[in-house]
Amino acid sequence: MEIQQMKAILEGLLFASGDEGITVKQLSNILEITEASVHTILEELKYDYENRERGIMLMHSHGAYHLTTKPEHSKFYQKFIETPHPTRMSQAALETLAIIAYQQPITRTEIEEIRGVKSDRPVQTLVARMLIEEVGRKDSIGRPILFGTSKEFLTFFGLTSLEDLPPLPEGQSNSELEEEADLFFERFNEQFKDDEPSN
Predict the structure, then answer these.
(1) Under a CB-based contact definition with an 8 Å cutoff, are residues 132 and 125 in contact?
(2) Taking 70 as the threshold, does the pLDDT of residue 156 lie above it?
(3) What is this structure's pTM?
(4) What residues have CB less than 8 Å from 166, skipping those under 6 apart?
């Protein structure tokens, strides 16, 4: 495998790893190259991001590498956060929200085990919309973030407390429970679809 190809794959792995990042050892195992080679490629990527007009940078924190935005562009990201977003949520965000609502507190990894797919973006979307929030850290290896629903979640869905959530049938698998919960939230989301102008 050529160095440029490995560099592209490594960059993709950094992106896919999200906020948690990925270690040199993990990259070494995945790419089947030495850790020294991984360090060399990481240094090249770091140089690329620092010496060109790029919007991201390479960060090293708590033994893992991850991609992040550049601080000098922060005012634009703030504008983006403050810009109103369409109320309608994606199916992935609805599924993720349903899981968190009924299984909270829950980590992103646990969400992914239930959904069967990576859930970085849906979680980020829900955090950005303030429907979920960090509620602590799990007492396990790496102390992953625990997520739970917020006060804004209750307001958005017209609930006074989590006890107002409809009970899920017992004796069902995770996927069936997820489907039941997802249908509940989708009913609320449908009202916003109906309010949108047709093309």
Answers:
(1) no
(2) yes
(3) 0.48
(4) 184
